[in-house]
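Let us practice reading a record.
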Amino acid sequence: MTDIELTEIKNWFETGATSEVIKSNFCSNRSEFNGRLFRYESLLTKSFSNDCLYLVSSSIGEIGNNCFDHNLGFWQDEPGCLFIREKNFCLIGDRGQGIKSSLAKVYTLSPQDRSYIQVAFEKIVTGRAPERRGNGLKYAKKNILTCGLSLYCVSSGEEVEVGDSLKSKFQSLLGIQLKNSGTLTLICW
């Protein structure tokens, strides 16, 4: 990706400003996201064995579908998610309420908890209570580690890393304002 494209992504996340990069990679509904993920699998076959291919694809699907599942009625502006697909990484982002706002409605941090985003990746809890859900990000984390990938997720001033550290690389590329609500997730291999 070029520096101009990265700046456009940063501007979209921080302000909602659209550009050709945003428009061409924006999924306004779950069906569009899942269709693009299905087409992305053909590129993923070049990087992964069949075992990891399906684990990686389902993990990307979990994170992308969360953009829609947890933001109904809570979008900052246009509903949907950004889904940038490249040969050795993908970026999924939304301008929704963020993980912290979603979980704070149903979960109070204990002294052992570091942050809501850590809870989301480590405990079975969902912002969609009373539904019995909340295992998806733990599933994605396990798959990321099993297949040797790295993940960096930032949401509402909180962040989590899975696998090798991507924080410095991610922040230097995008210069994200970490306090913005919404969620950006980078998965690299």
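A brief commentary: The radius of gyration is 15 Å.
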